[in-house]
Amino acid sequence: MTKTNIIILISFIILKFILQYALVHPIYDLQRDEFLHLDQANHLAWGFQSVPPMTSWISLIIKFLGNGVFWVRFFPALFGALTVFVVWKAIEELKGNLFALILGATCVTFSVYLRLNSLYQPNSLDVLCWTLMFYFLIKYLNRNESKWLFYLCLSFAAGFLNKYNILFLVLGLIPAFMLVPERKVFGNRKLYFGILVAFLLVLPNIIWQYSNDFPVLRHMKELSETQLVHVDRWGFIRSQLMFFPGTFLLFFLGLYALIKYPAFKKYRVFFWTFFFVLSIFLFLKAKDYYALGLYPIYFAFGAVYLSNLLEKKDWTKKLKPVILVLCFVLFLPLLFIAFPNKTPEYIVKHPEYYREFGMLRWEDGQEHQLPQDFADMLGWSELARKVDSLYKTMPEPQNTLVLCDNYGQAGAINYYSKLGIQAVSFNADYLNWFDLEIPYRNIIRVKNASEVEKELAETGAFFERSHLAASIDNPYAREYGTGIFSFIGAKLNVNERIRNEIEEETTY
Q1: Contact between 77 and 17 (Cβ < 8 Å)
Q2: Which of 8, 268, 292, 481 could form a disulfide with 449 if both were Cys (CB 3.0 to 4.6 A apart)?
């Protein structure tokens, strides 16, 4: 790698980090899912109901670093920057020139990955692990050295421990290899050694799943009943095009080159892998972002192919800066609407821009005034502040349970609370995090807006005193109207009721 190439690559990485922080308006809190992942650092295990253990290990590092928002956003930005780096190295491996390197890095940088890498979720590392597996496969096909198969298996193990989504890549690779001469890889004994090592690495998580009656299956069932049922297959395909508005043509060039470009003949397995994986996602009615791990490596193929086409004539060489500028310009519309860099008031006044890209449609299939992710980044610090205020007034606060309706509420309170409150819920992993050694006498109940009116009647009878103490006032928050109730002096055994509820939830 030349000095010029190194400087340009470092510039892309620095730009990536700057953008990840600059594209979030300070009015927004963290996002709902981020709170759950951060709280996993306090309950380390080999698995959780919705994700494997990797996120909890990263959350533990964030906790050691002070648990600040800077570090929460640092790690997804880091994984995004590493994805750019791997794509750069893949283009080098494909013998791409400087223009191909810059084009590939531009395509990955100015794309939906900017949004993905602004959220502390397993998705950023998931994309990186998919890209690493593809990269090591290219290295193996080029050099026929078994060590690259071993690294591929290690990348799978890391990806599996981060998000089970990477299994779909393997399910696509296996039939794809059966269609190409490179199927002889299945006769390589060292491949099976790598598979064995990968299996041993993920085995603790598999044992955890087995010991806990495979909660991932319950989670998938819940997703299919509440969210995936609203997924439209044509909407899934449209979303793939919208993810890369200025660069999807380059992706198609990459696919085309895998069939027609002689220099890419030995990489034809990549062509079939894309269609097998996408077919699986379409069949399962998966969420559109599940497929995002597919694309970075195909931009590498497209960039190398296009750069070679442009080298054939003098006039086509002059198109290179135009193409780079065009990639950025075509992405500009999304830069202004796909990120929480505008206030909620602005979005409500200009809904047409967001509606045009389908961003106001939530998982419930209905349109709302803000994109769902943005609404999921509001009201949380307000909730924690009001719970803290109520907690200070409770008699015997040490015997007060803060019980929430969902994991977002519980996680936000635990993250933003100034009193060290540890809220819980019968939702997601919080179901396993109740401290039943404490004899609870009082409850601060955080109740979803749709059920606020009946809460006093249903629960108040079991306590000496009860009232609605506060609610979420931010009209733009998804949690708008969420009630905060005070229940003092239990007339029943609260701990026993909790145990019964946990048993019912886990049985279901």
Answers
A1: yes
A2: 481
- Report the length, in residues, of the chain: 508
453 has a pLDDT exceeding 70: yes
At residue 298, does pLDDT exceed 90?
A: yes
- Give the CA distances from residue 144 to residues 148, 190, 443, in Å, rounded to whole numbers and listed in that order: 8, 12, 63
DSSP class of residue 110 equals S
In our burial notation (b when 16+ CB lie closer than 10 A, e otherwise), range 142-175 reads: eeeebebbbbbbbbbbbbbbbbbbbebbeebbee
Report the DSSP beta bridge partners of residue 260. Answer: none
Summarize pLDDT for 155-195 with one digit per residue, the tens. Answer: 999 999 999 999 999 999 999 999 999 999 999 999 999 99
Taking CA atoms, 284 is separated from 240, 279, 288, in Å, by: 16, 9, 11
400-404 and 442-447 strand pairing: parallel
Distance from C-alpha of 430 to C-alpha of 427, rounded to nearest angstrom: 6
Give residue 334's pLDDT band: very low, low, confident or very high (50, 70, 90): confident
Cα 296–Cα 299–Cα 300 angle in degrees, nearest 5: 95
Between β-strands 442-447 and 483-490, what pairing exists: parallel, antiparallel or unpaired? antiparallel
How far is Cα 195 from Cα 90, in angstroms, rounded to an integer?
23
Q: Which of 160, 152, 123 is nearest to 46 (CA)?
A: 160
Written as six digits, the tokens of 48 are 């959780």
Q: Which residue has the tokens 């054939």?
A: 312
pLDDT score, position 223: 60
Give me the residue label for tokens 């700057």.
Answer: 18
329: its two tokens: 């310009």
Instruction: Reduce the DSSP state of residue 470 to 3 states and report it.
Output: strand
Handedness of CA 239, 241, 246, 250 (dihedral sign): positive
- In this prediction, residue 233 carries a pLDDT of 75
How many C-beta atoms surround the C-beta of residue 358 within 10 A?
A: 13
Question: How many other CB atoms are found less than 10 A from the CB of residue 86?
Answer: 23
| 418-444 core/surface letters (b: 16 or more CB in 10 A; e: else) | eeebbbbbbbbbbbebbeeeeebbbbb
Per the listing, tokens 């419930």 go with 364
Nearest-angstrom CA–CA distance, 279 and 369 = 33
Q: Where are the alpha helices (DSSP H) in 370-416?
A: 372-375, 380-393, 407-416
217 near 175, Cβ under 8 Å?
no
Count CB neighbours of 30 within 10 A: 24
Contact 391, 400 (CB under 8 A): yes
d(CA 483, CA 471): 4
First CA to last CA distance, the chain: 56
Closest CA to 102 of 18, 27, 5: 5
Instruction: Please say whether the beta carbons of 246 and 328 come within 8 A.
Output: yes
Asked whether the beta carbons of 452 and 481 are under 8 A apart, the reply is yes
Q: Indicate the average pLDDT of the chain.
A: 91
Per-residue pLDDT tens digits for 53-75: 999 999 999 999 999 999 999 99
Query: Of 359, 364, 362, nearest to 338 (Cα)?
Result: 359
